[in-house]
Amino acid sequence: MVNNMNNTSNTSTSSYSYLQYKNKVTGLASGMDIDSLMEKLMKAESAQMEKLQQQKQKYEWKRDAYREVNTSLSAFEKGIFDNYGLSKNWAAKNVTSTSTAISATANSNAAGNLTITEATVATAGQKVSSGATLADLSFSATNGTFTYKIDGQEKSIAYSKTDTFDSLAKKLNATGDFEVTVTNGSNGATINTKIKKNIEATGNNATFLNKLGLRDGTGPVSKSVSGKLAFTESTTMSELGLTDGGEFTIKAINEQGTYTEKTIKYSATDKISDVMSRINGSGVGVTALAANGKLSLSANSTGTGAEGSIKVSADGNKLFEKLGLADATGKVAEGTNGSMVVNGVKMESTSNKYNVSGYTVNVTNNIAATDAPAKISSTTETKTIVDKVKEFITTYNGLIEDLNKRVSQKKNLSYQPLTDAQKAELKDDEIKKWEDKAKEGLLKSDATLNKVLSDMRSTLSNYGSGSEDMLAKIGITTSKTWTDNGKLELDEDKLTKALEEDSNIVSRIFVGDKENNREGIIASLRTTAQNAVKNIEKTAGKASSAEDSYTLGKNLKDVNTKIDDWKDRLKGIEERYWKQFAAMEAAIQKANSQSSIFTQ
Question: What is the dihedral of CA 269, 273, 275, 281, to 10 degrees?
Answer without folding.
Answer: -130
